[in-house]
Amino acid sequence: MSAPYYHTIGKEVSVFEQTYKCKLPILLKGPTGTGKSRFIEYMAHELDTKLITISCHEETSSTDLIGRFIIKGAEAVWLDGPLTTAVKNGSILYLDEIAEARPDVIVAIHSLTDHRRELFIDKLGQTIKAHEDFMLVASFNPGYQRGFKELKPSTRQRFVAVSFAYPEPKIETQILVSETEVEPDIAKKLVNIATKIRNLTELGLTETVSTRLLVDAAKLIHSGLPKRLAVHVAVIEPLTDDLEVIQALKDLSDLMI
Ligand code: ADP
């Protein structure tokens, strides 16, 4: 399989390589759509290791990660969850949006994030040592505005942490072109629109324009949707439901593309 496309932004690749070597857990911090998932796919490929991804949500519990007994015929059979599988076979386990998960998930990974590197499976009364290639990676959206769950300092301090932000315009333009084959001139305009909207902090948007939204807009344009319509449906509408803000953003972006 060829390597997933990932454009390096800073020192994240060497930080990750050394963290992997030192068998430490790592936290990827940053808003949604800034390339965290793509980065970890790329690193797993570079390090030639398996990757198991769990998208955490408010119902994600330690049982979902560790495993459970299921009834098969007249018997209860134990089924490893993804965390147990990764601990045993030495995969990278990526807990995407870890702060969304239930608190017992944090408790479950505790002994894996320090020198012990072991997992306690309470339902089996077993403690298993992590495979030497096992690595725990989590992502977290710090969300300076409302609506985001926090991660306790005592949890955060168990991880090496790397920040992800929107790439500088030149790099973001390159990403759009590589991802979608959209014309460079259009990619540049999309990035300009994003930069403008990102600077409009007074709009109080919970999340602003991510690289992901720009990639979507570029894909739609490349496939034939008119440019302004593509920006409207792929960039503006996903950001807000406030009709006045939508109109203001539309007026602004129509002038720029
Ligand atoms: P996150 O996990 O931070 O929410 P993703 O990794 O899913 O974000 O990124 C969203 C999309 O943005 C990716 O599918 C990719 O198209 C693009 N992208 C963002 N940053 C990069 C990057 N540095 N290199 C390549 N593609 C990127």
UniProtKB/TrEMBL annotation:
The keyword Cytoplasm is assigned to this record: no
GO molecular function: ATP binding; ATP hydrolysis activity
Record bears the keyword Nucleotide-binding: yes
Residue span, CbbQ/NirQ/NorQ C-terminal domain: 172-254
Key words of the record: ATP-binding, Nucleotide-binding
InterPro entries associated with the record: ATPase_dyneun-rel_AAA, CbbQ/NirQ/NorQ/GpvN, CbbQ_C, P-loop_NTPase
Stated family: Belongs to the CbbQ/NirQ/NorQ/GpvN family.
PANTHER family on file: DENITRIFICATION REGULATORY PROTEIN NIRQ, MOXR FAMILY PROTEIN
The name this protein goes by in its record: AAA family ATPase
Source species taxonomy: Bacteria, Pseudomonadati, Bacteroidota, Flavobacteriia, Flavobacteriales
